[in-house]
Amino acid sequence: MQVIVLDTSFTDLACRKTFPKILDTSPPIARDTARNHSIITLGCASPGTVRISFNRTVIGDSIRIYDCEDVLTDFTIKIYMWINGVVVDSCTSLATPTDPDDHCTTNLVTIAGNIKTESGQNVPDVILDLQGANMAKPLTDINGRYEFPAMQTGSEYTLYPKQDENHVDGVSTLDLILIQRHILKLQNLGSPYKQIAADVNKDGKISALDIVELRKLILGIYEKFPSNTSWRMIDDQYNFTDPSNALSEPFNEKYYIPSLDGSMLINWVGVKVGDVNGSYVTNAQDNNLSSRTTGFGFLIEDKPVVDGLNTMVVKANMATPLAGFQLSLK
After folding, report:
1. Backbone angles phi, psi at 74, to 5 degrees
2. Residue 69's pLDDT is what?
3. What is the CA angle 321-325-330, rounded to 5?
4. CA pair distance 310, 313, nearest whole angstrom
5. What is the tens place of the pLDDT at every residue in 105-160?
6. pLDDT of residue 312
7. Nearest by Cα to 86 from 47, 130, 137, 32
8. Lowest mean pLDDT: which of 166-170, 187-191, 265-269, 292-296?
């Protein structure tokens, strides 16, 4: 009887996440190696010299150093397997430095704050981008609050809040009327934040073009403003030089931190573009018809319709001055 033994295994590289630990050094650092990330499967036949690196062109690049600023930040890492000096496989891994022994706590600070409208409505789901920091971007919660993970002092950052969803929230025909009355000098919008909301096309002035853009959004021709975001966030510590002409000055929509030297509370005023009457309500998702004028209504004669052109006479149920109206027909 003859027994033949075959080697059917293969050479393979798989990655695993690591959690490098901050050590009690001066300064405190964590050390991670490419080998820590690798799970290697080798066939029976000796493939030669196997090495693992972080670089597909430099075989000796196999060590990464992290400091306190990197704690609890996810780093995406590429791992390469070399056999006899040739790259034969690769995989993608993650490294998350940790500080279980609190070697970094003495110098850690944080940045936090809230975002509310001029009328005090919380603004949730705003993305806070801390440019200059390698960390995840937090969102404001239902109460409009945000907070970044603790970090080291001494670095330079720029904080930039962004929200560009649900453009139609808080927008109605009443906003069109108020913008028109402002343009005709019949009723000034007054508040700097209302002026910013009225600049729908973001050209630095309030004009009939803003009314055209807003009307297209209300009618469903646009799903979003072509040249503006849904929201603009203004540093709440910014003082307008000329509140009656807010669009003429470069108000702060970013917050520059030349050197972070302590924990900071940075609050913002959220401006819903197009909503000049401040009707935005947090988490308002009700799309049903609502009455805004008590007692006023339209009368339509009930009669059968046929294919083709039909004329329906619509009358108001009372005599009253009317600047505009908005409704849906189902």
Report:
1. -85, 120
2. 81
3. 140
4. 10
5. 766 789 999 999 999 999 999 999 999 988 889 999 999 999 998 888 888 999 99
6. 84
7. 47
8. 292-296
Length of the chain: 330
| Site of tokens 């002026």 | 195
Widest distance between CA atoms in the chain:
109
Closest CA to 264 of 273, 274, 276, 256: 256
Q: Is 25 exposed, middle or buried (0-12, 13-18, 19+ CB in 10 A)?
A: exposed
Q: What are the two backbone dihedrals, phi and then psi, of residue 12, each rounded to the nearest 5 degrees? A: -145, 150
> Please, is 32 exposed, middle or buried when counting C-beta atoms within 10 Å of its C-beta (0-12, 13-18, 19+)?
buried
Tell me which residue of 293, 295, 303, 302 sits closest to 324, measured CA to CA.
293
Cα 150 from Cα 111, distance rounded (Å) = 8
Distances from the Cα of 324 to the Cα of 84, 177, 275, 313, 327, angstroms:
79, 7, 16, 18, 10
Return d(Cα 94, Cα 70) in angstroms, integer: 13
Average pLDDT in the 190-208 region? 95
Residue 80, burial from CB neighbour count under 10 angstroms (0-12, 13-18, 19+): buried
Q: Is the pLDDT of residue 287 over 50?
A: no
d(CA 137, CA 123): 16
- Quote the tokens at residue 125: 């789901």
Distances (CA, A) of 240 to 115, 179, 250, 252: 18, 21, 9, 10
And the tokens for 6? 């075959």
Please give the structure tokens belonging to residue 291: 């009455």
Convert the pLDDT of each residue in 231-281 to its tens digit: 999 999 999 999 999 999 999 999 999 999 889 999 999 999 999 999 898
Cβ atoms < 10 Å from Cβ of 320: 9
Which residues 6+ apart lie within 8 Å of 219 measured at CB? none
Residues paired with 41 in a beta bridge: 12
Amino acid in position 311: T
